[in-house]
Amino acid sequence: MRLTRTLEEGMVITIEPGLYFIPILLNELIQAEPQHGLNLELIETLKLYGGIRIEDNVLVTATGHRNLTREAFGA
Length: 75
Prior knowledge:
There is one protein chain. The protein has helices at about 25-30, 40-45, 70-75; strands spanning about 10-15, 20, 50-55, 55-60, 65. It has about 80 residues and is of the alpha+beta class. The strands form two sheets. The protein has a three-stranded antiparallel sheet with strand order 1-4-5. Strand 4 and strand 5 (about 65) form a beta hairpin. The model has no long low-confidence stretch (mean pLDDT about 90).
């Protein structure tokens, strides 16, 4: 997590985990690690899309947090 601030009640932050298919980095890994364990067939299928990212907006509460995005989609 790249956040240097102290989280405080009432703050909303966005969590953006992602999986990106970067050909030059994939090729380097494939060359350097013969036992890379990658599913190259699946990667080839997904590479067209560039990657996948999920964005969740999370509210910091006094007792923890609330995932506002999940609540909105659950409604």
